[in-house]
Design a protein that fits this description.
By secondary structure, this protein is mainly α. The protein contains 4 helices and no strands.
Length: 128
């Protein structure tokens, strides 16, 4: 099969984006789990801490992790089922934009995911 039969560029950019988004999500999880509790609790033992920012930060970490998994899965499915390129491209595009909430793989992951989604949406198989 030639590269005209599959959206290779979109799938590879999507893989890179998904991995970066997962790395960013795991890094955010580590920072949330290790650094935030010590900084928030301080000398008062958590009595004076406001828990809202901690849980909001965790929400963004979960959004980043879910977005990374969906973008990674969509790029693998794009490579294995190119006939459904518009579906997988739309998933990559939407979840890359959503991933920006959780810093989207240091932002570059979301940008690459958006580019991959657009490439997948505009891809057409080469005429035989």
């Amino acid at each position: 099969m030639s590269s005209g039969d599959r959206p290779v560029a979109a799938a590879m950019l999507g893989l890179i984006a998904g991995v970066l988004m997962l790395i960013g999500g795991v890094a955010g999880l580590v920072i949330w789990a290790v650094a935030i509790p010590y900084g928030m609790w301080g000398m008062m033992g958590g009595m004076m801490a406001w828990w809202g920012p901690m849980f909001l930060g965790m929400f963004f970490v979960v959004v980043a992790l879910i977005s990374g998994v969906v973008v990674l899965t969509a790029s693998v499915m794009l490579q294995s089922r190119p006939a459904q390129a518009q579906t997988w491209g739309l998933l990559m595009l939407v979840f890359s934009v959503i991933g920006l909430l959780g810093m989207g793989g240091f932002v570059i992951g979301s940008v690459l995911g958006i580019i991959a989604g657009v490439l997948a949406l505009t891809w057409r198989p080469s005429p035989s």
